[in-house]
Specification:
Shape: elongated
CATH architecture of the largest domain: Orthogonal Bundle
Number of helices: 9
Strand content: under 5%
CATH superfamily of the largest domain: Tetracycline Repressor, domain 2
CATH class of the largest domain: Mainly Alpha
Distance between the termini: 51 Å
Number of strands: 0
Order of helices and strands: HHHHHHHHH
């Protein structure tokens, strides 16, 4: 059972997520979140000493939710591995569209703090673990021939992130976030995934 503190933190995180997802981190004030939760700003600071610590928990919550969705898909799907890889890319793309402002800002000023940098490294490591599980599934089914699953998973995650980064660079340069290129990024990631898969197929 959740304690009163945990329960209140959950309400704060939910309110902050709504604000951050709509306005971004920098344009959301702590007093606005406090008003949404119907507590005083001083009371909010009792739970979160600063905005960075609240951002940390919001990003962690979003990431954990997404990883659960990924895990369910990997464990329950009987699709061929290439189809499953493409489904996971679509899942991630739709998740980024839904939380676009968070996705943009996680690459900017709010990851300068040590705590958030550590969180981002942990998220990266979790992504590699998820891909490893999927590739292991492919090897077990004799769909893939991979000598080093961990290294291959790490490389695949880096390639997908690199394509994603290229896709958001125009937004970074102009300072005007848009979601119109999310579909283009997804298409490029799918094309790269198919090329990689063809090189790893069990012959």
């Amino acid at each position: 059972m959740l304690s009163n503190i945990d329960s209140k933190k959950d309400l704060i995180i939910a309110a902050a997520l709504r604000r951050f997802a709509h306005f971004g981190f920098s344009k959301t004030a702590m007093n606005e979140i406090a008003e949404d939760v119907k507590i005083t700003k001083a009371n909010l600071y009792y739970y979160y000493a600063d905005k960075a610590s609240l951002i940390h928990d919001v990003v962690l919550k979003v990431t954990d939710d997404f990883i659960k969705l990924e895990q369910d898909l990997i464990e329950k799907s009987d699709s061929p591995i290439i189809e499953l890889l493409l489904e996971l890319l679509e899942l991630r793309s739709s998740f980024i569209e839904r939380h676009y402002m968070l996705h943009m800002n996680e690459n900017m000023e709010w990851i300068k703090g040590a705590s958030l940098q550590t969180l981002m490294r942990d998220i990266h490591a979790k992504q590699i673990v998820q891909v490893s599980k999927l590739l292991q599934k492919g090897v077990s089914r004799k769909e893939l021939a991979i000598a080093d699953i961990d290294k291959t998973s790490e490389t695949y995650v880096y390639i997908m992130k690199s394509i994603g980064l290229i896709g958001i660079l125009p937004d970074v340069f102009t300072g005007i976030p848009t979601q119109c290129n999310v579909g283009e990024v997804l298409q490029k990631q799918k094309e790269a995934t198919i090329l990689i898969y063809n090189g790893l197929k069990f012959n």
